[in-house]
Amino acid sequence: MTILGSGTSHGVPMIACDCAVCTSNDPCDKRTRPSAVFTLGEHNILVDAGPELRLQCIACGIRSIDAVLLTHHHADHVAGLDDLRRFNWLAGRPLDVYANHATLLRVRRMFDYCFTDDPHYASSKPQLVAHDVSAPFELLGQRVVPIPYLHGTLPVLGYRIGRMAYCTDVSHIPDESYALLRDLDVLVLGALRRRPHPTHFNLDQAVDQARRIGARRTFFTHIAHELLHAEVNAELPDGMALSHDGLVLIEE
After folding, report:
1. Cis peptide upstream of residue 13 (ω within 30 degrees of 0)
2. Per-residue model confidence as pLDDT tens digits over 59-106
């Protein structure tokens, strides 16, 4: 898995902010909006398409996308969907997009032209095919397991492929979802900041959840400008760390 973006909805540095993180010289404190790619051999599965998707793919050397998994419809997770048109052109076909029913309803309203046929516009717009998912499914020869949880009151999805799982924008994990997160090599989990937040785990909550889930390694994402990368990593328990843009994680 490659972490394309590890930041919160504002990104880091945030506009008009002079805090220690926003002015940091550490490249790990430069955080674009949250997204990741699962790489399965020659195939890449994108998780979310934030506003910096084009720049993220260039920075991380992503040259193909074969399918897209969406966690939910918020702008920091879908505003880059138009950039998928380049991957349509490279692949020579439409791309399959997987999400829960509510997410697809909103995304189809926001990006209607991506999901409709227009012969006069086909070569210069994304061509996306929506798939409503609520249970495990097969994709590119792999089993993809949707992980239901809550982002405030909004039902969203994380995703597990093999022994790796990506769960951003989370404030509550239902009891039944813990079983889907057993025996992980790598967990990527949302951890917004130190202070409590109504729709996200803060750092202490995320650490507690990581202990309960018990992955061999946990990397936190969707990080706001209150967490200084090097400082926080020095405090975290063994096997846990903040992620950063461009981080590559390998299933053991």
Report:
1. yes
2. 999 999 999 999 999 999 999 999 999 999 999 999 999 999 999 999
